[in-house]
Amino acid sequence: MKEFKLIDVLDKAFNNAWLPLVQDPSKKEIPIIFDSQKMRLYFIEIYKQLYAKSGGDKSFMIHWFNDLNKAFNCTPIDACKTEAGLLTVKKYFESNR
Fold first, then answer.
1. Using one digit for the tens of pLDDT, what is the confidence trace for 19-55?
2. What's the total number of domains in the chain?
3. Exposed site from 29, 60, 63, 71, fewest CB < 10 Å?
């Protein structure tokens, strides 16, 4: 029986959240910010909130993640490429609960 490590589970959860949301193939590469486990966890929280807000509608989720959002003055995917931007997106969802 394979022993699961927390990092393996975190990597899989992050990849399952990030990759389906990225529309542009040139942006599929995972930004360096996500080398941090903490940042991966934050992104997974964002994904869960987006999933809840959309009722699981994948088309809506992809559209929201890849289109310009006035709250961030850029697309959420671009905001999530920096720590400050990722935290801004996270706070956006926390304030809209």
1. 889 887 777 788 888 989 999 999 999 999 999 999 9
2. 1
3. 29
